[in-house]
Amino acid sequence: MDGLIKLDGQLQRVLQAFGSPEAAQEQAVILIVGDSGMSSILPRSGNPVIDLTDLFQRYAIMRPGETASQKTDIALAVNETMAYVYNLKPDRSLKELVRELQREPRIELISWKEGKWIHVARPGSGSEFKYKPGGRAKDEYGQKWTLGPNAALLDVKVDLRKHVSYGQYPDGLRRLYGALHSHDGEFIVITAKQGYEFTGHSSPKHRGGGGHGSLHETESIVPLIVYGTDRKPERLRIVDLQSYILNLLRVEE
User: Where are the alpha helices (H) located in the chain, listed in sequence order?
Assistant: First the structure.
């Protein structure tokens, strides 16, 4: 509650800078948007922390502040409920690391790229889903995809008209594709089940608190408050706000 009171005070100062909230509404368009949602992390009794250093204990993991050497097997980049696992051995298949990750039932999604294809697996499922951009299937954002079998692993449904709909992972195909093409390297993207989080050598733990980073809707859906216009964004994604703001500026001109 203290945080909400502080936020309200800051918002009032912004509005009063125009003279009054009514004057602000006439002179400006104000957008307030969250950067991520938050899911609840289980308390200590629920064993919520997935320690990746334990999971990969037979591998040489690069520690914070170290430089990778020929002896280093993997590197970790942990962001609470998701993580990157980097394969630093060119002669080792990513599938070997995927098999290690599939032993952990608290992991929800395991994903990696092979050529143009994105692969997705779940511990205990015994199957994989793969997809790539382009093709006959089209989602609500106008994005086209080629989808392999087992799309349910990413909670994706395709109807007879090849229309793609998303379940608990909003815009999941594009966001996972983006994560796996965000930078160079050979790596795996993993997300934790709701209530759990990852840790590495120095990652903070949030037992009984909150965490974010995964594709789940709980951590993906954020508030958007628009004040000063009745124009609405065409699509409710953060990546679409740029075109929305530019359109608002054109109207003002």
Answer: 2-16, 21-27, 52-55, 94-101, 172-180, 217-220, 241-252
One-letter amino acid identity for 37?
Answer: G
Q: How far apart are CA 139 and CA 144, in angstroms?
A: 7
Element (H, E) at 9: helix 2-16
Report helix, strand or coil for 250. helix
As given in the structure block, the two tokens for residue 94 are: 């990513």
For residues 61 and 73, the answer to whether their CB atoms sit within 8 Å is yes
Is the separation of the CB atoms in 36 and 220 below 8 Å? yes
pTM: 0.90
Task: Summarize pLDDT for 116-164 with one digit per residue, the tens.
Answer: 999 999 999 999 999 999 999 999 999 999 999 999 999 999 999 999 9
Indicate the residue type of 188: I
